[in-house]
Amino acid sequence: DSGVTQTPKHLITATGQRVTLRCSPRSGDLSVYWYQQSLDQGLQFLIHYYNGEERAKGNILERFSAQQFPDLHSELNLSSLELGDSALYFCASSVGVAVITDTQYFGPGTRLTVL
Amino acid sequence: AQSVTQLDSQVPVFEEAPVELRCNYSSSVSVYLFWYVQYPNQGLQLLLKYLSGSTLVKGINGFEAEFNKSQTSFHLRKPSVHISDTAEYFCAVSDRRGSNYKLTFGKGTLLTVNP
């Protein structure tokens, strides 16, 4: 158990809908990262927040957005969903901002299925 | 742009046999390299990382990796595998050019250890 929690574990929805994925980081961690894992694209970095502020963006679509709240939990919002958005979405947390020195601890993921 | 190539998508081995999972990277600057493991139905867990210094890096669970700058490789090895090592292994790179906050992952290698 990494200490990172993600809810829900599974989510099934229809095309065009909007969903929110939630992540609670490990106690004491200020950084939250979101990743998307799909069969065709592999594991891709989406976005990084540190202490409530956006720090870096990766391959995140404009239909997707995220935020980190004062209690440090984070939400990833996916809208106008398409079939291709079906994937496993991971959240990771770390104590600081430096990827090279701060180990990222991954949650168990949310499996999103878009029908 | 940085990229990572994991040369084998699947590696089947027998228990107690040695294994090598291959990873090559592409970057025009110095890099930091990582290996992560994903056990079935779990998030990723850091196995080891190369930041600087000795090119042979030891990680958890008896794994080690060797950084070879001339061959742009970071292969993961274990001298004797166990059934419990069955998992997907991801090589990742983060370079120093202001994109400290992003990991680029390979597509993964599924290691299956058979009795």
Describe the 3D structure.
- The complex is a heterodimer of chains A (115) and B (115).
- With 115 residues, chain A is an all-beta fold.
- Chain A has strands at residues 5-7, 10-13, 19-24, 31-38, 42-50, 53-57, 64-68, 74-78, 87-94, 105-106, 110-114.
- Chain A contains no helices and 11 strands.
- The model of chain A has no long low-confidence stretch (mean pLDDT 94).
- Helix content of chain B is 0%, strand content 54%.
- Chain B has strands at 3-6, 10-14, 19-21, 23-26, 31-38, 44-50, 56-58, 64-68, 73-78, 87-95, 104-105, 109-114.
- In chain B, 41% of the residues are buried.
- Chain A binds chain B through residues 2, 4, 42-45, 48, 55-56, 58, 90, 92, 97-101, 103-109, and chain B through 32, 41-46, 49, 51, 90, 94, 99-108.
Brief description of this entry?
The complex is a heterodimer of chains A (about 120) and B (about 120). Chain A has about 120 residues and is mostly beta strands. Chain A contains no helices and 11 strands.
